[in-house]
Design goal:
The protein is mostly helical. It folds into 2 domains: about 80 residues, RNA polymerase sigma factor, region 2, helix turn helix motif (Rna Polymerase Sigma Factor, Chain: A), CATH 1.10.1740.10; about 55 residues, Winged helix-like DNA-binding domain superfamily/Winged helix DNA-binding domain (Arc Repressor Mutant, subunit A, Orthogonal Bundle). Helix 1 runs antiparallel to helix 2, helix 2 packs across helix 3 and helix 5 packs across helix 6.
Amino acid sequence: MADAQDRSAFAALFEHFAPRINAFLQRQGSDPAQAEEVVQETMVNVWRKASLFDPARASASTWVFTIARNLRIDMIRKASRPEPDMMDPAFVPDADPPPEEIIVRNQTAGRLKDAVAKLPQAQQDVLRLAFFEEKAHPQVAEELDIPLGTVKSRIRLAFKSIRSEFGDPS
């Protein structure tokens, strides 16, 4: 598309607008280096988006200066973003657990699976829906076509059975 555009007309446009945009940006508080960068970006956008210019909506100078203003705002926003602190604990991955902890977790998971398998099917169904499929208790009741109180009772009974399998009588 750029090959089809008139390079000499663009050169004249650049000569006319570049110093004016630069002065405008410096009056707005940009330092000379920032102003020059925005001027360059503005003129690149003018070249690339020349087909989008609509003289019925605004004059050429209004269109060019609007592009420059928006680019300056974008540059200020980008410069004011804080840099992330890579030493922040949120960015530091958790250390892998020690092998003995992995073994204990796997053994516990196996015991839990066995304890759930020993439950009556009705309690297994309620646990599967409520905890593995993460459905709310009313949804579980609706899906199984049972009262909400029955869902809660089955969960409570299932937990009691599982706790007793793990040696917790409460």
